[in-house]
Amino acid sequence: MLTEELSGPDLRRLALGTLLPGFAGPRAPRWLLDLLGQGLAGVVLFERNVVDGSDDATAALTETLRRARPDLLVAIDEEGGDVTRLDAGEGSDLPGAAALGLVDDEHLTARVAASLGRRLRTSGITVNLAPVADVDAEELSPIVGTRSFGTDAERVARHVAAFVDGQQRNRVAATVKHFPGHGATAEDSHYTVPAVTAPIEVIRERELVPFRAAIAAGVQAVMTAHVRYPALDDVPATLSPRILTDLLRDEMGFDGVVMSDGLDMHAISRTVGHSEGAVRALAAGVDALCIGGESTGPDIVEQLVGAISTAVREGRLTVDRLRDAARRVQGLRDWTRSPAESSPRERPGDEAARRALVAHGVTALDRAPLVLECHDEPTVAVGHVPWAIGHPLGERMPGTVVVALTPHDPDPLPALAQHRDRPVVLSVRGLRRRPWQREVVAAARARRPDLVVVEHDLPGDAELLGAHHICTYSASRVSADVAADVLAGTPASDTGGARTGVG
Hints:
Structural class: alpha/beta
CATH class of the largest domain: Alpha Beta
Number of domains: 2
């Protein structure tokens, strides 16, 4: 029964205290500042909120938000590698999880995470929606891939724990995702409701291992997956009390904030809908609800507040569960306001990218090449981020010619015919899951057997990569830079050169 103290404004404030919306543009809109003053928990930043990769501009934005609510949570997806919001215009200066997992130096992973945490803290960001704790169990996954530390659960677990520890030294909360694991499905929850059909024994021995390690490392938040696990429940994890309360809370002992993945994703918004999804997620055990779509505005926030309030009045969501969610979110805000540990100022991204790079055969060029870049439409998780080798190689070798190929215009032969006298570099991203790129490689190699393939993703078929290739294990700017160094014959730094052979 609804108590008198939770009628009206008090109930509204509790509901607002569970919401983390996105917003449009690099300036804080009036509606957002007003809602922060009324109790909104915080915000999620995206590339649309960042001005030309300027950390100073981001810090000014977060300071404006903080004047409306000093203890708000400011969250962002800043994984490094393929997924960056702060550096969406030019690519990340940190390699991604797959590169770090390949190097398999937990101290290096912690250093990378600490440097990222320092940068986020300086920019006024208090929650990072990273690291990815998914095990890369499905090579055709359109959503995990290089965002995972690897295919071995124990290795993933070690690096997830190291990343959590390194980042949280700076009092930037880590958020491991996507519980209980998104790596064993070939579908993307941005568009549909994927299913992990593995038996419970496999889920416990594979998917859950990195999350247990993160909990042991003191991770502050766990993000849910909009994925079904028939061995655990019939509904997506975000809506499942069996998965979030019985498994994550009671069995695994997690006592921090459970955060939903974006409610705007089709797995929720086009099935049960935003409002029903918010109510059922809270009832299942979610504490903080992310609403990150570009259309997010005051109407959607008010719609969710209304749905949550109505569910409490109707008894579909208990007062105690709503209070508990708001209390946990408040606890996270308090944690982020505590003093950070002192960590060294360093930029370990170059070292990590060099140590992860694998070069095979003859890759150094003797003159400016023709670069063929294979470009797909970006995924929702990654967005439009530059990744290919052409620009950095052109900086090192003036006169480099860059030709973009797409699934709609994939023919490399005209460019090859026009530039017969040049070495050829073919820049690809994800041959293992993109048939059209494999066809481009085969057609180009038939004309130019001496070409060098640069794979900015996981390596896949070694025969297809050919005798002369480079694998970066990351579509970050820093990984493209070190690959360009190798192609241009630039000496490796003292932090270690490229590997040889297929990793």
